[in-house]
Amino acid sequence: MMLRALRKKIDVKFVLILALVLTVVMAGQIGGYIVLLNQVLDEENARNQMLAETNHDLREQVFALQEQYLAIPNQLEVNPVAALGSWAAEKGAKPVQHEGRDAIVARYKKRKVRRDVGKPGRFVVDEYDGSGAVSFGLFENGEPKNVVLEYRFKGVPQDQLQADVDKIVADNAGADAIVRKIGALKSSLADAALAAENSRVEILFQFDQIKQKDAAVDDFVERVKTLVAGSGLLAILVAISAAYMVGRMLITRSLVRLKQALKDIAAEKEVSLREVERKDEIGALAIGLHQIQDAQKEANRLRASRDAEREKTKRRVEERLTAVADSLERGMRTSMKDLTNRAHDMTDKAAGLTRLAHDNQAQADQASQLAGANAETAAKILQLSENLVSNGDQMSRAVDQQRHLTGLASRDVAASQKTVEELQRAADQVEEIVQIIQDIAGQTNLLALNATIEATRAGSAGSGFAVVAQEVKKLSAETARSTQEISNRIQAIRSVSGSAAKAIATIDDRIADVNGAMGELTRSCESQIKASRSIAGHVKSSAENAEKVAGSNQSIQRSAETSGEAAGQLSGAMGGIVQALNGMREELFGILHAASRTEGAAPEGARPKVGMESGGAANNEADNVVYMPAAAE
């Protein structure tokens, strides 16, 4: 960086010297250019001035001829109205139009005057407001427009105005007026032709002068181009020569010596430069070379101490990584132990669920048998109802037996309901255990993340811990999948137990209906003869309810069998989880021990990235390690 900066400064100085020489040379050349350019500009300005004057004269003459040409019809025109209008405008008369009969009658009271202004070529001179005024009618294609134009002359008497109007009319009426106008036009054209010839001669003379001026300007420009090219080439040669001499004296020789000194320093030879006394960039570069030589000596001295410090840093990093491995192993051992204990608890819960399912199935079988007996009893009651009058005592005993059987069925239903509730509570407990396992898996994942961070900080020395962290992440993912399967099976058990609870509630309702029917039957026995038909109907209803109870007991039996199968599957899954956890624990501990042995046997040339910049950075980096606590319940 310093050499680049010095090189830039030397280049800047060289450029400044070259710029100074070029400035002196170019200043003289530019001065000559300015003088020559001013002369060229003066010649060009003179030529342009001549062209501008000639162009101006031509334009004025063309415009004058154009005006004369356009005025020829007017000069030959014999129109008293137009002549009078032009003369009135020159005198400053005020024009006033009277349009319509009413306006004309209001202005001209006399009929004779109105007739005169209504004829073409007739002019009426009268007095208006103490001054003279002349009026005439306006016509279009020989037809009157019912409009009278009046010119009012301020301060002009009527007599004088009448004389002037008569003269204008006389000059612009008849053949004599046309002859006079033609003569005047000929005289004017003759004068214009003479003036045009004089202008042509003068313009030709000006064109000759312009051609001479153009030739002189072109010759002068060619001489200026030759002079500019020669002076530019001379300036380039002078600048190159001056730059070479200055660079040779001030820069090149010293740079050659500095280059040789740099080679000697690279070969660890002693050098001494006299350029250190200079106050410019060359001197700064020489001082820098001496500083490089001193720094080389200091680097040789520090290299030995740095190697010793590197060995110390390596040992500290190895000790710190070993401590991290031990802490990780202790945390994982505690987490795995707690996870195994909870898995055993889940196995016990699954076994309890299996036993509850078997009990529920047995109670369902008993309820089914009671329902069958209830159906048989209802059939007997139906048969006895046909002989109700003669067998009242026998039917009463049958009714009592039926009520006893329905009471037993009600108790069995209550026991089944209790079993289903216990199954629900067991499922809730298993789900809590699944949540705990998921929390433990999350903490295990955090431990793996901590190990990954430590391995990253340790650099190449912690590659073994990176492998350990990856394996821990895989085991945590497998645990999460197993707990998800258990959760799905628990949901299935809940669904089955819910169906069983609904079926049991239905059975309870049916038994209540049977008890109600039995009550009605008991009351009906007091009036056997009057209610024989009613008793037969109730007995029939009781038989139908008994059949429904039997069907509901079959549903309970199927639900109990399904619950038993689900509990057996849960028990098998928990056994598999326990085996997987034991295998995971053994595998994880084996990986940790293998990583510890690998870190302890690291090659001699391996160095961690921590502590490379300075000797004390390794301790500070190791002290900032944060350890994740072991998983707790």
Automatic annotation (TrEMBL):
The keyword Transferase does not apply. It comes from Aestuariispira insulae. The chain crosses the membrane at residues 227-247. This is Methyl-accepting chemotaxis protein. Residues 317-571 form the Methyl-accepting transducer domain. GO terms for cellular component: membrane. Pfam families: MCPsignal. One of its GO terms (biological process) is signal transduction.
